[in-house]
Structure formats: structure tokens, C-alpha cells
Amino acid sequence: MDVRAQISMVFHLDKCIGCHTCSIACKNIWTDRKGAEYMWWNNVETKPGTGYPTKWEDQDIYKGGWEKQKNGIELRGAGKKKGLLNIFHNPNLPVIDDYYEPFTYRYLDLIESPALDDQPTARPVSLITGKPIDIKMGPNWDDDLSGTPDYARKDPNMHNLSAAEQEAMFQLERLAFFYLPRICNHCLNPACVASCPSGAIYKRGEDGVVLINQQVCRAWRMCVTACPYKKSYYNWHAGKSEKCILCYPRLEAGYAPACMHSCVGRIRYLGVVLYDADQIENTASDNDNNLVDRQLNMLLDPFDPAVIQAAKENGMPDSTIKAAQYSPTYKFVKEWGLALPLHPEFRTLPMLFYVPPLLPVMASLGNQNTGQGDKMDPIAKFWNDKWLYDTSTDELWGTIEQARMPLKYLANLFTAGDEEKIKAVWKKLMAVRIHRRDVTVGDIPKEKVAQSLREAGLDPHTADAIYNLTSLAKFDERFVIPPAHREQAIEMLEFTGDTKGSVGFGFKETLQRIQ
Q1: Vertex 7, ends 464 and 199: CA angle to 5°?
Q2: Burial class of 157 by CB neighbour count within 10 A (0 to 12, 13 to 18, 19+)
Q3: At what angle do helices 460-467 and 419-440 cross, to 10 degrees?
Q4: Taking burial as the number of CB atoms within 10 A of a residue's CB, which of 55, 183, 326, 386 is the most buried?
Q5: What are the helix (H) ranges across 32-93?
Q6: Is residue 235 a contact partner of residue 204, using CB atoms and an 8 Å limit?
Q7: What is the pLDDT of residues 378-427, one digit of tens each?
């Protein structure tokens, strides 16, 4: 058992209000530079939607991530052989139009324009060429537009939804959408690291943060192709690849990353998890329907004496183990089973997990007898069979199947198509809501409260703990950051003779080399 520490994150999607404060905080600190104008290390997408870059989830287009082979896995569009063939011409790279051509406006034209009969305007100009352009796309161009045919209906996750399910999602009165914030997942099996011909991308041994050594990067851009989440970018001015660094200078000083610190909805949680690195290859090589369970099984109990002993033998500090024991991400992901990885079928084993949105319950349940039978329009019949409006308390708490967002859509996002896992999370979220409604209002029958908790596998104490960490958590409870051990980093750099931070050994390997 090779026990290692990994900084992991949880985003609670029911709390995201789509304000983009996180994106602006990141932009102002890290990518407000020439060549990085189009980069959004943190972005917030409206789902259903095509996202940024356009259709980034469709690996038939971009060839990102890993694919299962008979003897394991291999990179879908990069690697030694494929990378060599495409090293000077890579047809799978997203182009600037897939992101958007960054632009600004000639604001001085509004001030310096001579007196004319017409109102002066500030023409949009490209930040790359400096020439006037017609704006066709932006980083959040489809914000709140999940009813439009140009974006939501082209979402790759809609591929196996029935026509009735798709059309029902876009009925104006019942439009269902949610926000999906994204940053680099700092994966356990990062495709970007495996694809880099220069060896510039590495995973830090002390906390698992994935970084790009700017001194070593030669801009082959294989990382851009290999990352299925498209969170590695090319700086056209510097001629280097760049990506989210999880604000590691802030982490080392004990502060939360900028996007998380500034989050208005307080949807973000950060903490340490311990995992068994020996399981990475077998986990990533498993069948799609086993990927989520195998990934969660890799995460180890930080209170288990055997795990603690193995971690110490691997050189892990006591402070890191203690941080893992208080980690909010461990509770959401492993202890409570509420958070799931984004597109586990990409096989990168992402360390950013999401609590799927339950969304507001419809004030309409049941079945309405219209007398029209089979003569009804299929879409109308779909809704008629599912809901009719009733705002009484009893009808507000329906079954999981009566939620507005189809189970199948969320399963395509978070469980490689396994609807039962989404249903299990929804049952827990609904049970917590029913329990808290009973505590604060008391208008739900006690039998129904007990039944919902029992079916979700929860007890009142656990339901209260979930509620407290979701709704009432303080800053130090949402972000449990292990102390940085600068002395270990210095020893590692002194031994290798590298002062530019280009190595990423695990604790065990580092200690063996120093000794």
C-alpha cells in the first residue's frame, strides 16, 4: 500500500448561483496577461450547454483522456506513437474560435470622437491582432441560455436522452438548468502529464497539485490535446503551456485558492484525502460501470491505524494526516457518498468532485386525467403523466423520478451513465431536506421522515452533519489546508540540484534518495 496525500475539492452544485466571482478572481490574479487573455483557468458553464471550449466533452472531436485497451489503457490522442505522428500538425487541438477570440473596445473613440451627427461607438477590436472584429463567442456566451437550440440542444450529454425527455427539459415554464464551475481536476492519473514529450508537467509529491515547469516546456501542446477537460492552455505570447496551479502559493501560506476564497455561494470545499497509489493503474483500466466505485475505494480511511502507519512509513507528516482526518472533501466523497467525479469515463481519476444538483422541487406532482388518452401530444403527455400543479406540503416532497433534471443526463455527467448512483445521492439530499423541514417546521408526518432517512441510509445525526457542513459551515470547516513543510521541499531541491521546482517525487522516493 503506497499511501499518498492529495489536495481534493468538492463543489456543491445546488449552491452555485452562477455569479462568476470565482472566474474573475482567478482572471485578475493569474491570467490578466498578454497571451493569456482567452484563458479562464476557472470558468462557470450553464448546463445543458456546450461549455468552454465548445463541446469540450466530445472526445470524438478532441481525442482527450484515456481509452481502455485489452492490456490496460492508452492515451486517446497523444502518447509516444500518436504524439510523434502529430507533433508538427495536431488536428485534435481546439482552435481559438472553439474558445473565443479575446476582444476589447476602443473606448477612447467615445471620448475623442469629433462632433458628428451620429452617436459615436466603441468598436470591438481583437486583443490578438488589434484589428476590428465581429464578436461571435465569449467564455460564457451561453450563460443562462439552456433553452436555446444553439447551445443546450447540442450538449454532448444529451446523446442518449429520448426525444420526449429532451423536449420536456426545454419547455419554457419548466426549463431546467444549473451551473457547472470547472477548474483543473489535479487528477491522480493525469493525461496531460503522460502526454508531455518534454516532461515539463509533473505532479507534486507533497499534495498532488499538477504543475507545468515553464523552464522545461517546449510548447508541443500535447497536454492541451490530452486533457479531456481542456484545462491546459497555450500562451500564444510566451510560447508556453499554462494551467490552473490551484493557487499553491496561497495553499503553502495557509490560504484558500482565490476562486474558493471569493465564492459567493460558498459552494467550494477543499481538503486532503489519502489514497493508495498502487491502485491507480488497475482502477483506471476497469470497466466504465466500475470506475466510480473503484476510484472511491482508492480513498483511504485517515483514522485507520494501518493507513496511518503506512503513511508515516512513506514520510508523510503528522500534520497532513491530521488534516485528512478533518477533511470536508473526505466527508462529502467517502463518508457520506454525496459527491461524484466529472466524467469518470475519461479515466484520469479527477480529484474535483461535485454534489449533483437536486434543483428546486416542482410544485406539481401526480397524474391528471384529461380524457384525451393517446391523442395528446407526446410532450404534453410526458408532463401530464409526471406532474400537475399542487402547492400543498404533501405534494412538494415527491419521488426521485419526479425531479426536473433527468437522471440520465446527470448520470452522463458524473457516473459514466449509471443512474442508480445519481438516484442514491438524490435520496440522501432529499432525506436531509425532509428531515430539516421536520425539525424547523414540523409539518411532515414522522413516518415519512423516518422512511426517507431509512431509504437513504442516513440517521438524524448524519443528516444534521450534512446540513451543517452544507449550510452553516465556517471558513475553517470548508477549507482544511495542511501546513506546508518547506524543509522537505528544500531538501528535495538540494539533493537534485534543481532550484526551479521541476521534480515531483513522492515522499517515499524523496526519503530514499536523501538517505
Answers
A1: 160
A2: buried
A3: 90
A4: 183
A5: 59-62, 80-85
A6: no
A7: 555 554 554 444 444 455 555 666 666 788 999 999 999 999 999 999 99
Looking at residue 419, its pLDDT comes to: 92
Residue ranges of E strands in 260-313: 268-276, 299-300
In DSSP terms, 104 is beta-bridged to 125
Interacting residues of 457 by C-beta distance below 8 A, sequence separation 6+: 428
State the residue for C-alpha cell 495536431.
90
Beta carbons within 8 Å of 135's beta carbon, 6+ residues apart: 103, 124
Which pTM value belongs to this model? 0.88
The CATH topology of domain 373-477 is: nitrate reductase domain fold (1.10.3650)
DSSP secondary structure letter of residue 364: B
How far apart are alpha carbons 262 and 479 in whole angstroms?
13
The x, y and z cell numbers of residue 389, run together, are 400543479
Kindly report the three-state secondary structure assignment for every residue of 410-453.
Answer: HHHHHCCCCHHHHHHHHHHHHHHHHHHHHHHCCCCCHHHHHHHH
- Burial status of residue 238 (CB atoms within 10 A of its CB: 0-12, 13-18, 19 or more): middle
* Calpha distance 109→107 (Å, rounded): 5
* Model pLDDT for residues 63-84, shown as the tens digit of each residue: 999 999 888 899 998 877 777 7
| Contact in structure between 347 and 66 (CB atoms under 8 Å) | yes
Which of 329, 328, 357 is closest to 425 using CA atoms? 357
**C-beta neighbour count of 60 within 10 angstroms:** 9
Give the list of residues 6+ apart from residue 167 with CB closer than 8 angstroms, or none.
379, 382
Residue whose C-alpha is closest to residue 196's, from 248, 249, 247, 243:
243
Find the DSSP H helices in 58-103. Answer: 59-62, 80-85, 96-99
Residue closest to 138 by CA, chosen among 104, 106, 110, 108: 104
